[in-house]
Please model this.
Amino acid sequence: MRSIRVRLFIILALVTAVVWGTSALWIQVRTQAEIHRVLDRRLMESARMVSSLLDQGDLTAVAGAARVAGAAGVGPALSPAAGPGYERQLSCQIWSLRGELVSRSDGAPSERLAVADGFSERTIGDERWRVYTVHNRVAGVQVMVGDRLAMREGLVGSIITSLAAPTLVGLAALGLLIWWSVGRGLRPVRQLADTLGARRVEDLSPLTTLGGVEELRPMLEALNGLIDRLAAARRRQAEFTAAAAHELRTPLAGLRVQAQVAVNATEPETRARALQHILGSVDRTTALVSRLLEMARADEAVEQALMRRWVPLAELLHTDITGCRVPVEISQAATALELHVDPDRVSALFGNLLANACAHARTLVRIDIDQTGSSPILTIDDDGPGVPQADLPKLGRRFYRGPDAQPGGSGLGLSIVETTARAHGLAVTYGRSPLGGLRVTLTFVSPDTIRAKPKSKADNP
Amino acid sequence: MRLLVVEDDPVLRDGLQVGLAACGWTVDVVGRVEDALAALESSAFDAVVLDLGLPDGDGLDVLQRVRARNMDVGVLILSARDAVVDRIQGLDSGADDYLGKPFDLDEVSARLRAMRRRLLGRATPALRYGDLLLDPKARLAWLGDQDLPLSRREFAVLEFLVERPNQVISRSQLEERLYGWQEEIGSNAVEVHIHHLRAKLGAGRIRTVRGLGYTLS
Model:
């Protein structure tokens, strides 16, 4: 069901209808029983009254008694609407023991109302009668007082109808009230929706309103968590864009100046030289743009799932080693390892690190693994000039380029390495290598990303 | 006029060197804070074009040193950091002008000329001394109504003298203003230029103060 309001309304309306229906049914049953009881008692009392009149032996009173009994039904309590067209409710007959009708009230049928003493029911014509019969031995007569069951049912019906009318009005009013109350109860939800709807795109402050509504708090917290992550992602993006734009300005300025030199040049050599610079600069700027894209992807990758599988370390290093201008030494222990990583990303990571090491190394790059501690540590050493102690913390900062950096670098390589490493649960640190140059340390913070190659695989050529 | 360009990007540095030289500046270039400071200590420059993000420090360090030493040099910052706050910070640190990257080479040259004018307390772009008129932008000179055809160096010598009409300018001052580090200076190069100028202007215009240098008369 789409609307909570409709859903709640239907539930509440159904429950109310069931409760009210049950009580109405109960009231009907009870009213019916009570009316029957009261009317039965009236029959009995009327019959006894007539019988007691007969006890006095005044037979002239008999006819009057029967009429009185017939008139007794005109009780104001039972028939408030008595009028000219009023139909008597009670009928009285007095029969002699020989079976002659001695007297009867107005409107009473001439046929015998009952055949037995006490309460009985009988159908006369097409009407069903309820009758009480008193056997008066002194007067030698049977006094029968009866009423029609149809009248009784009509009485019950009118009571139920008079009860049902306000009930139906009440139900309608209740329905409206439920609808309104549910709407009112859901107001915090609507307020939250309004707050969210009215929010400007750039507003990523946490939601504070409605913090007091307990039921909404988990949702608010989840929303705030989402907003936080969004804000962080947007901040990263803005920083990246600003940094990228900034980094592109210098090469663009170079291109522009060289182009101007080429345009203004009077000597062909000057122009040729400027054009040569432009060509080189375009290539380097293209490389910078690729790096920026690579970094943007690495940033995105932090949020995305990695396609991890077990890959031998040597396989990840292979292409970079063959491209290195100095020999790369991999220790036996390191060769026997495999990593549970995303092969594309991690081989790019090693590519970056080895490219650095190979560019700065004088004669040697060495890769080793130290598994003595709780977290395995992979080291990449070179015997180049290294990085001054003071500059080590700056490595990995975006766009940071060392004082002796070779021209053409983007200052992004190690930053990309660190982002990829973080995504894989690896920590990158820098230090001085025993070989004299830079040592890059990869710590496998979660040891289940590294293991020895299975024997069968190692034996398999 | 002698100019020091401090810029670490090799392509931009080269472009500034070649381009500004074509605008008539004598240009020296360095790529690091350290080298810039050494250059400013050792030679006299009329202006510095300064990048801020340098590999071994911030260009503002160079600026602060220049101002602390009270060097008589105009500083134009050329930086990729061109937000308003950056420009305000640069100017308040003592820069005479601030341009964001990328920029137009001719604009840089024009701003450098304007900076020189302000530094020398002049409002008009043209330089005048008696009936001698110089246009530093077009690098043209007139004597009365006559065009005065001058070589680049001759113009530079004359411009330097006209800018400082009542001073005696030494030969080494002229040499420093005229030649960058890479340029070979003949031992009597300045004398040769003066000689040519006198031939074009008339003998009495440039007076030699024996043992000190030259001055206009």
Notes: The CA atoms of residues 119 and 146 of chain A lie 9 Å apart.
